[in-house]
């Protein structure tokens, strides 16, 4: 058959929607735009509904096969097995180029710096690139004796072994970080793998559920650029106290909103929030509404919509009424926001999100953040009120919106024929076909 002679690419995603979404979109592009045959290997124990809908949708293009695998540990093999079989391996980085630069620099930091990184008196200087504030360092590198740090270092030190590194970003979003990695031998050993920015690859608007349809119908009735969308990724949630303050701040601001509310959790960590694995599912039992201040739903019903656990994020961000996005700054959410031209309010929770938020604010100019005192665990209602007003009505918010709209244009261009990301992927596809 035709499929049997078409060059075949295996795309392997680590578990978690944050990885599956961009890699699946990448797989789809390889099939529909570049005529390759792709097997998408999904390593999973228990697929969530969101995952099932995405990967087992009836509308997948022919030439894209999804294969569910049990939770096998590929971490120590993949490169070696493929080498034995003479199959070239490429890495796909689902985070920013800035974070890739940081990751590639870890082995050097590990050799050159004594003691803990968190005790450094100054931000970490990435050669040719921006600086990383100590308070933005991700949890995995805050304790070098920790196993998580050792694994992270091990994996990033193997990245340069790849035939190439694909990054879900684009030239105009991160020119400095991309340039730094390419030009600075400190990031990769010889021979330096090629860096291919192929983004922003974001998920397609998914099939809508009845509650999604209601949500979009509600948006249809709101003015342009007026609604604040609040959603903290596939698993982010707030502490009980933060949820209360957030609700009051939002109400006091008088702004329109769609808020994806989840059951609060009081276990852990920064900005009074934590990650609840399971793509919003474990917490989807309706009890979360009981944690909102008494009368909140009634008092805000003219201006706001509260959604339980999961909203059709890309559809909401694409809607002209959406005017700002309170986000945990996961890289997919960040790309979706700029791809749709929506400015962000940063509410970073875990992983590299603090670094993303700083970069999106200082280098890109699409994000505003709450003012947080060192050690402060909960952000008060007055600060939240200020932040929400500023995002929609203030000058700072308007400047971020202008920048986000510029980037929307730029993202559209880079993904079109002749655009840098499109051509980067096309170049790879040609190589793979010739292989
Ligand atoms: N998402 C969604 N609806 C929600 C919350 C999240 O569709 O209510 C999607 C969002 O569009 C994004 C993904 O979940 O594609 C979250 O990925 P991200 O990298 O932002 O964060 P992570 O979940 O990995 O922390």
Word description of this protein:
With 435 residues, this protein is an alpha/beta fold. It contains 16 helices and 16 strands. The chain has helices at residues 2-5, 17-32, 49-55, 78-84, 97-112, 147-158, 175-183, 210-220, 240-253, 296-299, 313-318, 331-339, 353-364, 381-393, 395-415, 420-434; strands at residues 8-13, 37-43, 64-69, 90-93, 124-125, 131-132, 164-167, 194-197, 227-231, 236-238, 256-261, 273-275, 304-308, 322-327, 344-346, 367-368. Strands 13-11-9-14-15-16 form a six-stranded parallel sheet, sandwiched between helices. A three-stranded parallel sheet has the order 1-2-3. Helix 2 links the parallel strand 1 and strand 2 (37-43). The longest helix has 21 residues, at 395-415. Mean pLDDT is 91; it is low at 269-273.
In terms of per-residue confidence, which ranges show pLDDT below 50 for 5 or more consecutive residues?
269-273
**Cofactors and ligands:** uridine-5'-diphosphate
Report the portion of residues in β strands: 15-25%
Number of strands: 16
User: Terminal Cα separation, in Å?
Assistant: 19 Å
- Largest sheet, order of strands side by side? 13-11-9-14-15-16
Instruction: Report helical residue fraction.
Output: 40-55%
Instruction: Report mean pLDDT, rounded to a whole number.
Output: 91
Basic shape: globular
Helix/strand class: alpha/beta
Most strands sheet: 6 strands, parallel
**In DSSP terms, counting alpha (H) and pi (I) runs of 4 or more, how many helices?**
16
Radius of gyration: 22 Å
């Amino acid at each position: 058959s035709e499929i049997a002679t078409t060059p075949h690419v295996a795309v392997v995603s680590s578990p978690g929607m944050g990885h599956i979404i961009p890699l699946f979109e990448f797989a789809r592009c390889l099939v529909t735009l570049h005529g390759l045959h792709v097997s998408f290997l999904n390593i999973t124990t228990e697929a969530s509904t969101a995952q099932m809908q995405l990967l087992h949708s009836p509308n997948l293009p022919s030439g894209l096969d999804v294969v569910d695998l049990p939770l096998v540990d590929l971490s120590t093999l993949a490169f070696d097995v493929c080498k034995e079989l003479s199959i070239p391996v490429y890495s796909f980085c689902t985070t920013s180029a800035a974070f890739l630069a940081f990751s590639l620099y870890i082995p050097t930091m590990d050799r050159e710096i004594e003691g803990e990184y968190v005790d450094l008196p100054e931000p970490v200087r990435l050669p040719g690139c921006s600086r990383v504030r100590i308070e933005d360092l991700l949890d995995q590198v805050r304790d070098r004796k920790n196993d998580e740090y050792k694994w992270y270092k091990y994996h990033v030190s193997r990245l340069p072994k790849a035939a190439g590194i694909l990054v879900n970003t684009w030239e105009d979003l991160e020119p400095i970080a991309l340039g730094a990695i390419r030009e600075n031998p400190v990031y990769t050993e010889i021979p330096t793998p090629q860096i291919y920015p192929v983004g922003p690859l974001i998920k397609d608007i998914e099939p809508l559920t009845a509650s999604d349809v209601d949500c979009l119908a509600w948006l249809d009735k709101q003015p342009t650029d007026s609604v604040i969308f609040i959603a903290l990724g596939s698993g982010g949630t707030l502490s009980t106290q933060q949820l209360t303050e957030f609700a009051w701040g939002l109400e006091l601001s008088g702004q329109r909103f769609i808020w994806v509310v989840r059951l609060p959790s009081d276990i852990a960590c920064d900005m009074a929030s934590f990650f609840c694995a399971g793509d919003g599912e474990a917490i989807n039992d309706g009890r979360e509404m009981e944690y909102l201040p008494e009368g909140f739903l009634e008092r805000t019903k003219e201006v706001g919509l509260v959604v339980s656990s999961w909203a059709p994020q890309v559809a909401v961000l694409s809607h002209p009424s959406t005017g700002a996005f309170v986000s945990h700054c996961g890289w997919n959410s960040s790309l979706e926001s700029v791809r749709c031209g929506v400015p962000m309010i940063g509410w970073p929770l875990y992983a590299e999100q603090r670094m993303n938020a700083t970069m999106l604010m200082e280098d890109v100019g699409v994000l505003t953040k709450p003012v947080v005192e060192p050690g402060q665990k909960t952000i008060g209602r007055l600060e939240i009120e200020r932040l929400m007003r500023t995002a929609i009505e203030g000058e700072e918010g308007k400047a971020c919106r202008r920048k986000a709209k510029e980037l929307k244009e730029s993202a559209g261009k880079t993904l079109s024929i002749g655009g840098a990301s499109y051509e980067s992927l096309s170049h790879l596809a040609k190589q793979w076909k010739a292989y």
